[in-house]
Write a structure and sequence with these properties.
One of its GO terms (cellular component) is plasma membrane. The chain has 380 residues and is mainly α. Helix content is 80%, strand content 0%. Helix 10 (189-226) runs antiparallel to helix 11 (231-258).
């Protein structure tokens, strides 16, 4: 019979391969769209990319609210009870909001530095560079139409084509508008170049935040496997983790495709995400052989996962949903996009429900102040 250590190593290698394959699968899907000769077929295929992006948003939102946040709540509550710090303050929700603000502040600082570095180059760029992130997503269609028009005319080199490869393929309605004879005029080449550069940087930064959040979450998932001492538990966690990781990897790949990331960047990011769970498993295997302070472990894991929750919310509500629902060219099929958003949310919800079926939920005693209020109401 296979040993526990050998089984963990098999799980480690399997997760590494499957996660990487699913993270780069959107590249293959988008490449097939690029080689479609028929305009209508290309447009339909690219609409599917937009719908899958909405599906990914549902996956990320469900992962945050239904998977990560309950774990954060349990770990922080356990740590605070062990440290004799009882409180009714919503610590887990507070840590989530801190994570959201950290990501938002970091991005705004990066954008501020970018704006100051480009103010002296183009006088037109100054006022527009101070738009909010939501406003930048509304300019997405105009930028891509102009860039795609330049690509068709052969004025761009191979280096520019590689840099915007994934994004040009994922801009479904932008190409359609260009093919119908629409053009974005009145913009200088330098102005459009710097607007494209800023938009590329914004999307790239957000993709890195998403990769960081998912990687952090994956390390803790790997720890759950590495810390197990029973073969049946390892197999059960591995089955659920494989499905969950494959969906997350594909969703992450779709987010990379929708950004301005290069093919090399997508492959590198996919590999980085693929190795996070094996890293967690390896750490768990090492920790399994030693005694670890459970209080400090719960506290650190809870804080880090709470910050990851805030990153999930940032990516969903500041990146994916505004891009899909606020851009004029992407307004058609609004309800279909909403359906895919719900399907993504429901998929993770169903997986989590099935994986936790039969497990008793935490029983929380009624607070003393609530009991006193009920008694006063009875007296009155």
């Amino acid at each position: 019979m296979i040993s526990i250590l050998a089984l963990k190593l098999v799980v480690l290698g399997t997760l590494l391969v499957l996660t990487f394959l699913f993270s780069v699968l959107p590249l293959k899907f988008v490449a097939s769209v690029r080689h479609q000769a028929d305009h209508n077929r290309r447009r339909r295929c690219r609409h599917w990319i937009s719908l899958l992006s909405c599906f990914a948003a549902g996956v990320f939102l469900a992962t945050c609210l239904l998977d990560l946040l309950p774990q954060v709540r349990d770990k922080l509550r356990s740590a605070m009870e062990s440290m004799n710090v009882p409180t009714a303050f919503p610590v887990s929700e507070f840590v989530l909001s801190v994570g959201l603000f950290i990501i938002l502040i970091v991005e705004q600082l990066v954008l501020m530095v970018q704006e100051r570095s480009t103010e002296g180059y183009s006088p037109i760029h100054g006022p527009e560079s101070r738009e909010s992130l939501a406003d930048h997503t509304n300019h997405h269609q105009e930028e891509d139409m102009t860039r795609d028009g330049r690509t068709r005319s052969g004025s761009t080199g191979s280096r520019h084509s590689e840099g915007s490869y994934a994004h040009r393929l994922s801009s479904s309605d932008d190409d359609a508008a260009t093919d119908d004879g629409q053009s974005a005029s009145g913009h200088s080449h330098h102005h459009m170049f710097h607007k494209h550069t800023d938009q590329s940087s914004h999307s790239y930064i957000r993709s890195l935040f998403l990769l960081l959040a998912l990687s952090m979450h994956s390390i803790f998932e790997g720890l759950a496997v590495g810390l197990q001492g029973d073969i049946n538990n390892i197999l059960q966690i591995f089955a659920a983790l494989t499905i969950h990781k494959c969906i997350l990897a594909f969703s992450l790949g779709m987010n990379f495709v929708q950004s301005h990331m290069t093919i090399r960047g997508i492959l590198g990011s996919g590999f980085l995400f693929a190795v996070t769970s094996p890293i967690g498993i390896g750490i768990g295997i090492i920790v399994f052989e030693f005694t670890v302070n459970p209080v400090m472990s719960n506290l650190v894991c809870g804080l880090l996962e709470g910050i990851a929750c805030g990153t999930f919310l940032f990516v969903v509500f500041f990146e994916i949903l505004p891009h899909e629902f606020n851009t004029k060219a992407r307004l058609p099929n609004r309800m279909l996009k909403m359906l895919f958003l719900l399907v993504g949310y429901g998929t993770i919800s169903l997986l989590l429900f099935l994986s936790t079926m039969g497990e008793p939920g935490p029983v929380k005693p009624m607070p003393s102040n609530t009991t006193s209020m009920l008694r006063m109401e009875d007296i009155i």
